[in-house]
Amino acid sequence: TKGQDVAALYQQARKQFEEGAYDQALSTLSPLLQSTPASADAYILAATIQELRGNPLDAARLFENVIDLTPSLKREVAFRACQYYMENQLPERALGALLKLYRHMPDDVDVNHSICSLYREAARYPDAAPFAEKLAVIGRDFDNWLNAGMVLLGVGQVEKAFPVLKAAYDARPTERLALTELFWCAISLCEFD
Questions:
Q1: Under 8 Å between Cβ of 85 and 60
Q2: What band does 1 get if pLDDT is binned at 50, 70 and 90?
Q3: pLDDT of the residue at 61
Q4: pTM of the model
Q5: 3 — pLDDT class (breaks 50, 70, 90)
Q6: DSSP state for residue 70 in the 8-state scheme
Q7: For residue 71, is the peptide bond before it cis, meaning its omega torsion is within 30 degrees of 0?
Q8: What is the Rg, in whole angstroms, of the alpha carbon atoms belonging to the chain?
Q9: How many angstroms separate the CA atoms of 110 and 84, rounded?
Q10: What is the pLDDT of residues 70-88, one digit of tens each?
Q11: How far apart are CA 129 and CA 112, in angstroms?
């Protein structure tokens, strides 16, 4: 059957990989990357081979392609793809991988934090706002609170920004950025005639 053929090819590629025959393993994996349904294990093995061969962008593309396929490693492969895209100055590609992951893990703190950060660093505050609002609720540390607060302040949601910026400041009162953001937020809350 087709399932047995897929399993046999994958095992052959795995053996070639373990023997260090990376080119052969990639050649063996090639039909598995084209098949329907695609083999998540084949994508992960191919990505691992590309990592070992020093081809981070090829690895990133393969890791990104397997996000929807793998039942249990979505988070790991998405963040691996994101890492390689960021190391190669491709933040939009990193964002694409994280947004794909977000569809599967909308309540994950790190996913929301990372998406919020990438949008904020690109000065795309309106795009970051929904993720900041989520972080304001589910955030658990200084970095989450500061990230959320900066975005919320940046889009004019000062009432939502104040408590998370206050939490960031309380967590690290010597952090100047937290103090500065909290100060500007407090000024924005004041009404001057």
A1: yes
A2: very low
A3: 97
A4: 0.90
A5: low
A6: -
A7: no
A8: 22
A9: 17
A10: 989 999 999 999 999 999 9
A11: 11
Q: How far apart are CA 158 and CA 73, in angstroms?
A: 37
Q: Which region among 6-15, 18-27, 141-150 has the lowest average model confidence (pLDDT)?
A: 6-15
Measured CA to CA in angstroms, residue 14 lies from 39, 55, 59, 135, 142 at distances of 13, 19, 17, 40, 43
Q: What is the secondary structure of 150-172 as a DSSP string?
A: HHHHHTT-HHHHHHHHHHHHHH-
Residue located via tokens 């103090």? 179
Q: Is the dihedral of CA 111, 114, 119, 120 positive or negative?
A: positive
Torsion, Cα 61 63 67 69, to 10 degrees, reads 100
> Which among 82, 9, 19, 83 is positioned nearest to 41, based on CA atoms?
9
Token pair belonging to 17: 């990989």
- Residue position matching structure tokens 């081979």: 49
Please tell me the distance from the alpha carbon of residue 95 to that of residue 117, in angstroms, as a whole number: 10
pLDDT, tens only, 13-55: 999 999 999 999 999 999 888 876 778 999 999 999 999 999 9
Buried b (16+ CB within 10 A) or exposed e, 75-114: bebbbbbbbbbbeeebbebbbbbbebbbeeeeebeebbbb
Q: Which two tokens stand for residue 21?
A: 């025959």
pLDDT confidence of residue 192:
58
